[in-house]
Every structure is written in C-alpha cells, then in structure tokens.
Amino acid sequence: MKYVDFFKHVFPFSKLAERDLITVAENCSEMECKKGEIIFSQGEAYKGHLFVVFHGLVELRLKGDKIVILGYRGEGDLLGEDAFVSGDNYSYEAYAVEETKLLAIPDKVLERFSAKYPFFYSFIASLITKRLEVFFKELSEVKDTKHVPSFFTKRLGEVFRYRKPIYVFDDVHVKDIAKIMDREKVSAVLVIDRNETIKGIVTERDIIVKFLSRNYGDTAKAVMSFPLIKKKLQDSCYEAVVEMIKKGIRHVVVEDEGKILGIVELTDLMEDEAVAYLGILTDIERAKSLKDIKRHSYQIVKLIEGLLQSGISAREICEIITYINDETTKKVIELTIEEVGRPPCDFCFMVLGSHGRKEQTIRTDQDNALIYEDADASEYFKVLADRLINALDAVGFSKCPAKVMVSNEEWRGTHQEWMRRLHDLFVNPVPEKILRFSIIFDRRVLWGNQNMESDFQKAFEEGVQEHPGFIARLGKIASEKKPPIGIFGNFIVEKSGEHKNELDVKLRAVLPIVESVRVLCLVHGITKTNTFERLEELKNKGALPEDLANEVYFAYDFILKLRLKNHIRLINEGKQPHNYINPNRLENIERKLLKECFAAIYKIQREALKQSGGIYVV
Length: 618
Hints:
Elements: H1 4-7, H2 18-27, E1 29-33, E2 38-40, E3 49-55, E4 58-63, E5 67-73, E6 78-79, H3 81-86, E7 93-96, E8 100-106, H4 107-111, H5 118-136, H6 156-159, E9 167-169, H7 174-184, E10 188-192, E11 198-203, H8 204-211, H9 220-223, E12 230-232, H10 237-247, E13 251-256, E14 259-265, H11 266-269, H12 272-286, H13 290-294, H14 297-310, H15 314-340, E15 347-352, H16 353-357, E16 368-372, H17 378-394, E17 412-414, H18 415-427, H19 431-437, E18 443-448, H20 450-466, H21 468-478, E19 503-504, H22 505-523, H23 531-540, H24 546-572, E20 580-581, H25 588-612
Parallel strand pairs: 9-10, 12-13, 16-17
Antiparallel strand pairs: 1-8, 2-7, 3-6, 3-8, 4-5, 4-7, 10-11, 13-14, 15-16, 15-18, 19-20
C-alpha cells in the first residue's frame, strides 16, 4: 500500500483500477542505487522486473567504441522496458547519475494485465519504438560512430553558440561596417532602421561583391541582403543548409520565441555527410541530361543506409528522400519542357500517394496528375505527359502498373474535366472507382500554378459535404485490409509462392493506417496530407484520443523503418526492392513491436469506421 499514491501519478499505472494498482504496489520491491552505480549492464541477462524511478536520475548508455548517451530517466519514468517486452538481455547500460531509488515490479505481476489493459503493453512498446528501436538490431553496427550522419539528426540548438548579435543602422557607411566587423571578429552584422526594426543583414560577401564593385550604394541599406532567413533552435541543420544553398546565402538568423539570439554560418553546419547530401542536390540542379540525374541513384541508397544507422526517425528519413525526389522530378520536368517547348497555358503538376504525403521509401512507382487551363492545349500536354513519364522512368521512377500517371488521359485534363470526374466519383461511388481515385486525396503540387489545385480542393470539400455517404464508404474500404495477425497472436503469412512465409507490410500495415487516418481527416475537415501531421492534427482537435494517436504514430514510424531496412537489404543483395518481410528474420523485439503495431491498426480502423458511419466486420 506504501506506493499506491505514487503509482496513481505514473502513466500507464495511473489508468489501472484501484485493486490492480494495490496489487502492483504490494508486489514491488525497493532498490537503492548509489551515485555512479551501474544498475544493469548492456548485454546483461534480464532481471525479471520492470523498473520505475521513484527518485533520482538514471543515464542510459549504449557502449561501443564510444559511449552514446540515449537519454535520461527521472521520477516516474520506466527503466528496462526493452528487456521486459522481449525477455532478452538489456540493450543498453543504466547508470545512476545521482543517488537513485527504483521500484522493481515483477513481470509476472504485469503480465496478468496485458489482456485486461491492452494500452499498458502498447504504451511500453511505443516507448521502445520512439527511444530505442534503432539500437536493438545488430548493436555492433552502431559501434563505429564515425559513420553516423549526425548532420541529419542535429538541431540548430546543438551547433549554435550564443553570441550577442551586432547591429548597425541602415545609414551607416560600408567602410565603418567593415571596421566594426574586424573589431568584433564577426562575418556578418544585422541592419536596423532608426525604429530598431531589423531590415536585413550585411556580410563580408556583400561588402566584397556589392560595395567594391561600385554597382550599389555605400550604406548598409544599399548593400544588405534581405529578407532574412530565420530559423528556430529546434529546426534541423539539414533544412537550414538546404535553404541556404538554394537561396545562395551563407548566414541564417537564429531566434527563440521571437527573440534574435545570433547568426549561424554555413560553415558551422557543414560536415562530411552534409557535403555528400548537398553534392547530390547540387549535381541534380546542374544536370544537363537524364543520364546526369540517373548516376546518383547509388549515392542516395548509401545516404539512406547511413540515415537508418543514425537513429533519425522514419518520418524524417522519408522527408529527406522525398525532398531529393522532389528536386529530381522538378529537374526532369524542366528538361522535358526545354525539349517540348513552353506550355501554351498555365498548368499544375501534382504528385500523389506516398510522394504526395512525403512518405516515400527509396524510389517508388510514379503516381501523378495534371490540371491545365485551356482545352485547346490538350495535344501539347499529351506530348509533354508522354515524354515526362518516360523521362521519369529513365531516371529511376518506375511506371505505375495501375497507370496512375499523367500519360493516362484519366489523370490529366482541364479544371472542368476534373470537376466532372469528381462529380462522377461522388454520385457513383462504387468500390472499384473509390479505390482507384482515393490516391488523389493525397496530393501535392510540385510544379505550376498552385491556385489550380486550390480550386480542386474547394470542389472536393463541397462534394464531401454534399455526399456524406461517400466518407462512410471510404471508412468501410479502409477497414477491409485486416492486419496479418491471427486470434492467437500468430503472424498470417503467405503459404506458398515466391513470398512463402512472408507478409506484405505495405498492403497489410502501411495502407490500413494511411487510409484510416485519411478517413478521419475527411470527417473532421483536416486538409493536411502527411500521415504524421494528420495524426497530430486529429489529436490536437480532440478528434482522436491522445493515447491512440500516439500509438498509431509510433506504429507507423516503426513499420516505415522496417520497410526501409528491408528495401536497403534487398538492394545490397542485388535484388529488386519489394514490400514483403519474413517475421522470422526479425529480432525478438521487432516481432513483439510489429504485433503491437497490428493491434494499433485494428484500433484505428475501428475508430475510422465508427466516426465515418460504417459498420466494422471482423
């Protein structure tokens, strides 16, 4: 009874019934740890308990050639959850930073709650997914930290060193600015007007290029660069570098809650992996032919392989992949237009599906659509579309087997033609048609007139409001792809053929999450396309319980990472990437987590069906 009140304030114990909470409190034992004591070692056999920090601080370490700090656990945090779930040895070392008291709960006590409180086990599994999953498989791969591309994991706050920024008024002479920069040992100053409003930045490069060339004036206002690029401490280094390269600048202003903290230079952010990444982007930008673009495929695979080792989330990896694919596609469009000739009217090229959601893994099939302004230009856009699809195929984007591409006249047309297609979809929503056109709900403009897509979105929203039964049908379809898990918790795999003993993670895990979350967003009028952003928005609006939103978020990230690892493995084996995985090839912890992911999929499918007005069929 001694620790009942404590557990009442520790999630997930706080959600247990009173009598079960008492059972936990009565069966836990105390463990006092001195400062500097090793609570358990990496590779040590599981002690048979889940630990909860009562007071103190514990550092989690991964030991290899160098010690990697995974994080810290304080009052109310769980410890040893990886071994509790898997029953295997501890995957990291737990070190008492200060005098610490732990409560050790026998796993036999907790196991009886797994059926009664499914969220309990799911919460622990989600912790592993979020914090530690990257370190569980072949820990030796992480030993050589020289190969971890920290550039992609770092935030600006990690490289930024505070130094009070130097300000000059906009009418100060450039020669005086040069003296100030020399005295203060800085390469840039911020420019303000007499009301102390920031107007721009003057760098050494501005002075050399603009002042010494005599083509500009001789004051700060005349040579400054503007507008400023501002970044927050939480922003990633790679995003900052990409923006700096694209805009041809070498400095960004760092701010926190609107307050200017200082300036970061491009050289502060550059590391070997940054150079490699930017080299890919720079080479794509400079490409003069499709062959120039094609040769970077191998570099991209190696980049992704490094990202998987770094601990970066699947969400971030997919965003990086998508950014590279965006730039590649834009360059292909540019080269194709140069070949075909300038378009006779405005048009809008959209990427669909995983590309539209920014959730691409390596390079997937093409999925795209096109809207153009003038019906008389149909022949031009037919030629453009055919050549564009062939060009994209030539650089590594395979043609879509279902022909969801602008070369298919169903996926290009004027605004009026698209309105007719939408109308037909709403008034005659047969499953085959919904399945074929639902990919259009996950779209993003990559080239052309953004307003044309905005008009499409407005018409789509009106159609959804006028035909409420449409969403119910979508909900039913989303619930039909059941996760491949049996009633006794066994994986349901292919019984024969090329993929015997394997399961399709795209068809049975990725798509059910994507489609269910999409349905919920349609119900609540959420227009975001990225699945992670959709889940965050659903949670923020109260449209989805926080626990379920987090559970599905972590499940989706984990499944995408499994898919990425599988693709890289197949490529390294000289095979064509596919979406089938063999559960028996996974580590113990990965199999456990995958089962938890499938449980989360069942929940989100039921929720989507309930909120959309459909009926769930087991």
